[in-house]
Specification:
By secondary structure, the protein is α+β, with helices and mostly antiparallel strands. It has a single domain, classed as Hotdog Thioesterase (Thiol Ester Dehydrase, Chain A, Roll). It is built from two helices and six strands; from the N terminus they run ββαββββα.
């Protein structure tokens, strides 16, 4: 089960020029996206030897952290816009076994046009299991699709 929460603050209705930004407004500094999930078999590290107990893998943890960041910007996306991750720096601090609920939170700490920077953390009800920085960029889906098609 995955639970997604968006903590909406009330950002001002700032209209930006399409030359500098494709968004009508940026997420407010301090805005938080949160995502909770229960660790199950698909989230377990699968390349460790038999000596390793089953635990949440780092790639899955990063996936959920990135989606918590995306949740914080969903309210400001215009029709035809989406997000892409452009930087991830995560410390996986502690193991989490299957069956535990993990909560990931990403807080907006900086905006620069279409680029949003987040401070991220995850906890499993016992301790903090991860922390880090993530940057994503707001994109126009039609332009992104054109770039992909040019590579085909």
């Amino acid at each position: 089960m995955i639970l997604l929460t968006i903590f909406k603050s009330h950002p001002p209705d700032v209209k930006a020029s399409r030359k500098t930004s494709i968004m009508k407004r940026s997420p407010k500094i301090g805005e938080v996206g949160e995502l909770s999930f229960v660790v199950d078999e698909q989230h377990i590290i699968d390349f460790a030897d038999n000596e390793m107990p089953p635990v949440l893998s780092t790639p899955w943890l990063i996936w959920f952290l990135e989606h918590s960041a995306r949740a914080a910007v969903l309210p400001v996306l215009e029709a035809g816009e989406s997000t892409v991750g452009i930087h991830v720096d995560v410390e996986h601090l502690a193991p989490t076994p299957p069956g535990k609920q993990v909560t990931c939170r990403s807080r907006v700490i900086h905006t620069d046009g279409r680029t949003i920077t987040f401070q991220m953390e995850a906890e499993d009800g016992y301790e903090r299991i991860a922390r880090g920085i993530h940057r994503l960029r707001i994109i126009r889906c039609d332009r992104f699709r054109q770039r992909i098609q040019a590579k085909s």
